[in-house]
Structures are given as structure tokens and as C-alpha cells.
Amino acid sequence: MASSSSSSRESRRSQVGSGEQQAPVPYRVGPYAYWPPVMCQCNQMAPCWIAWSDENPGRRYYRCRYGLTPSDCGFFRWIDRQATPYERTLLCDMRDAIRQMKREKAEEEQQM
């Protein structure tokens, strides 16, 4: 089990440079545009993000504003329920289709 999560982390890391970690659609509201505020253990308002991993596509969560830095307090909380297998497959397929269209558009623009 550890090897599968390790390999998926490696896969996600390798995609960062290629733009695969960008949200497939723009955020409609900023990460701090919600009320009432949810405070992390640093006593700071926690931003609201959207996961686009295969396991949690489109699922919103709160994370310490210093997440993945030495100052990270470790605060993390899901907002949305976990998707059903059907919803997960559908969202991942749509995410991948959008990313493919964006890649094709970028390639066409480079050729112009």
C-alpha cells in the first residue's frame, strides 16, 4: 500500500513542471472569500482549496496558509463529502479532457 501512494506522489510531482497541477477550471472565488472564517492552529484564516487528484477530484478543503512549508501547523479539513466511484471517474475524465484541450490549444498557438 505504501508503494502505491508513494508512486502516485511521484507521478504528481513529475506533472508539476508540465502544468498538470493547475486547476482545470479557474476558481470562481478566491481562497479567502468565504464566511465564517475557519482558523488553523496558527490562528490564521485557512484558505479554501480544490483538490484535483484522482482520489478527490473537485473536492474542497481547508489547509494551513503555510501548508507544506516549515511553518505549516498541519491543519487540514475536508469541506465536501467523498465522491462516489462514478462521480470520481466522471470528474477525472472531464479534468483530463479539459487539460488535453488546453495542451492542444497551446500547441496550436505555438505554431502560429
From TrEMBL:
The keyword 4Fe-4S does not apply. Residues 1-26 are annotated as: Disordered. One of its GO terms (molecular function) is zinc ion binding. InterPro entries: Znf_GRF. Pfam families: Zn_ribbon_GRF (PF06839). Keywords: Metal-binding, Zinc, Zinc-finger. Residues 40-82 form the GRF-type domain. This is GRF-type domain-containing protein. The lineage of its organism: Eukaryota, Viridiplantae, Streptophyta, Embryophyta, Tracheophyta.
